[in-house]
User: Fold this.
Amino acid sequence: MSTNRYTRPHDGHVRLLTKVARMYHERGVRQADIAAALSISQAKVSRLLKRAEALGIVRTTVTVAPGVYSELEETLEAKYGIAEAVVVDVDPEADERELLAAIGAGAAAYLEATLSGTDRIGVSSWSQTVLAMVDRMRPFTARGAVEVVQLLGGVGAPEAQSHSNRILGELARMLGAEPVYVQAPGIVAGSAIRDSLLADPSMQEVTRHWRELSMAIMGIGSIEPSNVLAESGNAFSPAERAAMIEAGAVGDICHRIYSADGSLVRGEFDDRIIAIPVEDLLRIPRRVGIAGGEHKLEAIHGALSGGWVTALVTDLGTAEQLAER
Assistant:
């Protein structure tokens, strides 16, 4: 089939059309089950199937649009028990900046195609990959979400503070949603300070918002912090990181540290964290992890193995390695 029919081969809408068509026509999944799996309405599933026919994606078989890796995505979904895998084509020789840009663009397209307008979204504060996504989003013509809430403390050193503010403020603006900030650092000096901050009425209100979230968008971090996180003052000390690695830690989500099998790694550092509690995080129905690259492979594998995420946006090379494990 000719590919010039697709004006934007990497557009998230084309990818979603292809995925829904394959689920319905090739795998025999009912429309109601597709809607539940992808967190969209059954009416939208029906419209997408009709649109897929109109575009020629559906004939007697499903035509996969260029740049869409449906079979690999389905392999990851089956292997790790997640609802969605989004694989982004990235040049194997791409540097860190190019990798972030490509994954960010893929995540932006995925959100643009799947948000319903009724979600209450939690977002991690210091992720470079999440910021790359926000920077590549286009404003929604209709409201994309009700509110956007920071999942961990967003206050940091002045030279890095704009990073956290941009993630939340810009995402809320793009979606036409209300922003909810966490007016505290992600890591504080001790448990007494943490307890005092959490008892403040403003933090009690944030805690209420955390329990009402329907979706989370999160970076997946390795134990070694990014430059932005290190500069913000919200990173663990070298001694703490060494102890974590000694205990088997491979990655973190919202400062919650986990091992290769995804199990939580506990330590004294837990008493210094201001972030959504693990039990509240894992109750969020749709948890989207955004990360890629060789240096994140172990952290991503641990997050998948431990059920920290229900959806993953990553690059082709990382996806292929995850599928082979």
User: Anything to note?
Assistant: The first strand starts at residue 84 and ends at 88.
